[in-house]
Specification:
There is one protein chain. The protein is built from 16 helices and 2 strands. The protein is mainly alpha-helical and 306 residues long. A two-stranded antiparallel sheet has the order 1-2. Strand 1 and strand 2 form a beta hairpin. The two termini are 24 Å apart. The chain is 72% helix and 1% strand. The radius of gyration is 19 Å and the shape is globular.
Length: 306
């Protein structure tokens, strides 16, 4: 079971320490402004630097440590996944899509820098992600592991992953979609990057193909639970805590698991998914202490208030 009476000692302190470490790593790989690209770089770095849980880098770091990987190999990919994720948020917030004014309690990039700058900043982060990923060849001695990580990254971020889910979401806004399409959007738009982060961390540490398939299933469970928890918070959260207005799904006429099944069933399904993920986690990896941290991280993600 994932939800236990006794939690890992000092988990909150360790989570904050790791989040701070992930933040430093991500910021280290951001571009430096030159004479003629200052406005673009400022918008890119603002978009990444305004905050966030650094969930994907955290998951990647943790699964790399679970298999006792080389920290130098995983560092650029931690930044890469956060850049890619942020680019998707910058474009998601644009007037043509969700038209949101706030993200993480701050102005969205298009509100701060203008729509054109936001489009270019998102494009810039996408390209910066791939440039940064290639730097891993110079930091990691295992070239095959880097290639495996790149293949996972490409698959989970393009039309077969996050972008495909985002497109399905945008193209079907205000339409009466069926459950199959709703789950497809959840799996691709949210779950793909979470799956990819876990898998890349483990792949860079030499995890077997069999283990990577189990990790993919874990990521699918946690990704779905994470998105449903987001849907719950969109109705029940505190705007001052979550950093954005409530009822955005209702305002955009989006079908969600909560709108179809209600809050009680949604909460129970989140618990079921997180418990399944924790069950799959048993026996994976080479570090028992790290496995315990990952289990607690799953608990946190599935019961968070922001």
């Amino acid at each position: 079971m994932c939800f236990r009476v006794t939690a890992m000692k000092n988990f909150d302190e360790e989570l904050k320490r790791r989040a701070d470490e992930a933040q430093e790593i991500v910021l280290d790989f951001l571009p430096k402004a030159g004479r003629f690209d200052r406005e673009l770089v400022e918008a890119m770095n603002y978009s990444v630097g305004v905050g966030g849980k650094r969930l994907r880098p955290l998951l990647m770091m943790s699964f790399n440590r679970l298999y006792k990987g080389d920290g130098n190999c995983v560092r650029p990919f931690m930044a890469v996944m956060e850049m890619l994720h942020t680019y998707s948020l910058v474009h998601d917030d644009l007037p043509a899509i969700d038209n949101d004014d706030y993200r993480r309690g701050e102005y969205t990039t298009h509100r701060r820098f203008g729509e054109a700058a936001a489009i270019l900043a998102g494009d810039g982060l996408l390209h910066q992600a791939y440039e940064t990923a290639l730097k891993a060849f110079g930091l990691c001695g295992d070239r095959e592991a880097v290639i495996r990580a790149l293949l996972i990254f490409g698959d989970r971020t393009g039309i077969n992953g996050m972008l495909g889910g985002q497109a399905a979401d945008v193209m079907n806004t205000s339409k009466n979609i069926d459950d199959e399409l709703m789950y497809f959007i959840y799996e691709k738009k949210t779950g793909a990057l979470i799956e990819g982060s876990m898998m890349i961390g483990a792949a860079l540490a030499g995890a077997s193909d069999g283990d990577l398939e189990i990790i993919r299933k874990i990521g699918a469970d946690i990704g779905l639970a994470f998105q449903i928890r987001d849907d719950i918070l969109d109705l029940t959260g505190d705007e001052s805590v979550i950093g954005k207005p409530l009822y955005s799904d209702e305002r955009n006429n989006k079908k969600t698991y909560v709108s179809v099944n209600g809050l009680d069933k949604a909460r129970k399904y989140v618990e079921t998914l997180s418990s399944e993920a924790c069950g799959l986690l048993e026996g994976l990896g080479r570090d028992d202490g790290e496995r315990e941290f990952v289990r607690e991280l799953f608990m946190y993600l599935c019961s968070r208030d922001k």
